[in-house]
Specification:
By secondary structure, the chain is α/β, with parallel strands linked by helices. It folds into 2 domains: 176 residues, NAD(P)-binding Rossmann-like Domain (Rossmann fold), CATH 3.40.50; 133 residues, no CATH class. Helix content is 58%, strand content 11%. It has a 7-stranded mixed beta sheet, with helices on both faces. Helix 5 links the parallel strand 4 and strand 5.
């Protein structure tokens, strides 16, 4: 694997170029601030007088309306939500994507599933940080950086990778390291990890374990501490030491019980379901489903949220946070 560092990227390549950041949410704000602090000319685009517009002004930017920012930008960074990108792109950005410009993403979703089809005369690149915007910004200010992935979907100019590396350096990613993979691989891996592990899988496992204990007569508070609160301790160990490092750090009882019972909690049937989830992602089925859900104004997501806040683990958590200094 080739890992790109600061020495492999040149910020001077972006000298006299304007970086248009479309959106000022978590990633948009963090990257725009880092671009500016790295000496780049940045214009932030947001809906006029909306919350993001006001936040950008508080942070010292003079925000522009979406179409105006896209017109001014030599590099146009699509840093709004995946679901809203196609509408914003075709309405405000596409008319200004003239030859020689660069279209930049931090997630490959809309290019992979072809919800956005840029002109063949522009470069299309991605720099995807492995962490949220807040962490990106904190590490940048500390002189460090998040690791990130770089991808080139289209190299119309012959210099797309050079541009992407310079943008990665401007955000501090090359301080930690940047590696390369295709757009669609980033999309598949990112969606799968969110659904199967980071968000969906962990949440369902924690809730199911909590329910199992409570149904067996265990106090809800004890179930909450054991199944949810202590999860961070284990995740931190895995994050810093790896899975085997975690096993070395826990008690012998935990080690034996986890090694022998863990495969029963996540068994061959679970792995078969994981393969089905990945197939839905790679075939485009999930992308089409999400696009349809967005057009219907997210009824399934709204219902899931209503049900989620009523779950026993959430009620217990709210009570515990009132009584404990955690």
């Amino acid at each position: 694997m080739r890992v790109y560092r600061d020495r492999d990227a040149n910020l001077d390549w972006l000298k006299n170029k304007t970086i248009a950041v479309i959106g000022y949410g978590s990633q948009g704000a963090a990257q725009a601030l880092c671009f500016r602090d790295s000496g780049l000319d940045v214009v932030v685009a947001a809906r006029k007088n909306g919350p993001s517009w006001r936040r950008a002004r508080t942070d010292g930017f003079e925000p522009a309306e979406l179409g105006e920012a896209a017109r001014r930008g030599d590099v146009v960074c699509m840093l709004i939500s995946d679901t809203s990108q196609p509408e914003v792109y075709y309405r405000f950005v596409h008319p200004h994507m003239t030859p020689g410009k660069t279209l930049y993403f931090s997630h490959g979703f809309n290019i992979t599933y072809e919800f956005i089809k840029p002109p063949r005369s522009v470069d299309v690149v991605m720099v995807a940080p492995h962490g949220p915007g807040r962490q990106l910004r904190e590490l940048y200010l500390a002189g460090k950086g998040l690791p990130a992935l770089l991808a080139v979907h289209r190299d119309a100019s012959g210099h797309a990778k050079r541009t992407a590396l310079a943008l990665a350096k401007a955000c501090g990613f090359t301080r930690s390291g940047v590696f390369e993979a295709p757009f669609n691989h980033e999309t598949f891996a990112d969606l799968f990890s969110e659904q199967a592990v980071l968000c969906g899988g962990v949440s369902e496992l924690v809730k199911s374990a909590y329910e199992t204990l409570v149904e067996a007569g265990i106090e809800p508070e004890l179930a909450w501490f054991c199944c949810l609160y202590e999860l961070k301790l284990t995740v931190d160990l895995i994050h810093h030491e790896g899975i085997e490092g975690m096993w070395s750090a826990v008690s012998e009882t935990a080690r034996y019980g986890g090694r022998t019972r863990g495969p029963r909690a996540i068994d061959t049937a679970s792995k078969a379901e994981l393969r089905r989830i990945l197939k839905e992602i790679m075939s485009g089925e999930f992308g089409r489903e999400l696009a349809q859900e967005y057009r219907r104004r997210m009824p399934l997501l709204r219902r899931a949220k209503r049900e989620g806040v009523r779950h026993g683990i959430e009620r217990t958590g709210r009570q515990i946070r009132r009584y404990f200094d955690i």
